[in-house]
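FAQ: What does a multi-protein file look like?

Like this. Sequence, then tokens, then the next protein.
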Amino acid sequence: MNIQLFETQEWEKSTFDAVAQKHELSFDKAPLTVDTAEAHSDAEVISVFIHSDLGETTLKQLPNLRCIATRSTGFDHIDVEYCTQHGIHVANVPSYGENTVASHTIGLLLNIAHRISDGIERTRKGDYSNQGLRGFDVVGKTLGVVGASGNIGRHVIRMARGIGMEVLGQDIQEDADFAKAAGFTYVDLESLCAASDVVSIHVPYSEQTHHLISEKVFAQMREGVVFLNTSRGPVVDERALLKALADHKVVAAGLDVISAEPEIREEAELLHTVLETEEKWGTLLTNETLLQLRNVYVTPHNAFNTEEAIRRILDCTLENIQSFLKGEPQHLVNKCDA
């Protein structure tokens, strides 16, 4: 079977040696996109990361495709409906970096609270003054976790409680036993916003969560709130976030994700996207503005990126591919008859 892996690095290849012994296997450093798909039309199984574009136009150029093994938990870069209709199995990595993303989230908060990166930048320039670098204690502050029942949200709550924070949680599915054990209270989103000193987002991206954090939701937050997002960029209406920052409703933001990540990564793609639609042009301008603000701390979708988490991703992806080849696909996000 023809198996092609995209967005791979040299050191990752050895993970798939067992598959290479019996199947045709190839690797590509670049993402799979609508512009490159035609060259890979013989692929029967592909593995991608989040920067590949597996929309309908791309998938139509892969007539032999039977399985997609994404090396991520999220699958919003894949047209799952198209895959289901055309008998293409889609498998994800359901669990690999809950504690990893959670610790990054707490790291962003502590960076903001103690002005850590600002202080490092200053001392590197030879200025050892701490003037203007006064921060705030997190102990006793209230953290509002949107998506409290999810795996990442749970880890964030445990860590926040461990450093002395009070916690409020919101989720469409409440777990009373976990709330009691972890020492927090479930409330609705409006109540969470009104009572939290810090609001952290941990929900998957879908049509239902698109711009979940809207101008209305920012208006419900208390003055001087710290806002954190390590889930997906489009969960937040970033123009509303900019307005909240300008109005000092949000005093600082820590973001590991923004909507225009792929376009910002590649200048050529940025130009292509700018010319494509007015909506994307607006998103790019908003994201570029966020990147320049001194009270906004953006990391490059790096929260998952530890040695241990990457190993878990690769091992699970290998298992997903091997399971499909055996006719026993696992970790599927869709159901198809083929």
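And here is the next protein:
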Amino acid sequence: MSEQPLLVRQLKLGTMDNFVYVIGDPVSREAAVVDAAWDVEAILEEANRHGLRVTAALITHRHPDHTSGVRELVKRTGAQVYVGAEEMPHLKAWRLDAAGPSEEARLGNRAVRVLRTPGHTAGSQCYLVDGNLFTGDTLFVGACGRVAFGECSAAQMLRSLREVLLPLPEDVVVWPGHDYDDTPFARLGDVKRRNRALQVEDVAEFERYVTGPRWPDEE
């Protein structure tokens, strides 16, 4: 881990309680934006406030409330885009570059680990950098995203949670894609203990959680 801590700025934007993130490397002054949407001007103002130059756009999944600002952000900054390969057919008009399986993004001298987490969508992915995990709609503090639209399965989502995210160190900080909980972020160890979606016993029970009408609409 770099000596100077990663700068993480959490912006609540739009009408669906979305979190957009500006993450910056204080050494190189490079920044990445996670799930650029709703208000690109506000995103760039936040980066400028901290003397950061946006060089990367990290997309957790293709839904418009997470991507509506990507095209403008790229036009204004020339940022490199990272998005799951399975999402590309839905974004083909953007002519964006995709990050394939097991690839890393870069933020200055820092590696940004790309974690493939299909479930909410087929190409959902999370980003891990310096102990900070940006989870989009895969994992919230107290719940997880829905499985819908016929492209994924509860089994895929549960596998992504149990096999990809939960084995990470418990002191990793989870930064979710929506403000759906009583705290806007939490350490993974705390998420494990309080998240109702992680308390299920089997796939059938999990499927009832992720497809039922009680869940907020994360699309």
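Q: Is there any per-entry metadata?
A: Some entries carry free-text notes. For the entry above: Helices lie at 40-49, 64-67, 70-77, 154-165, 188-194, 203-211.
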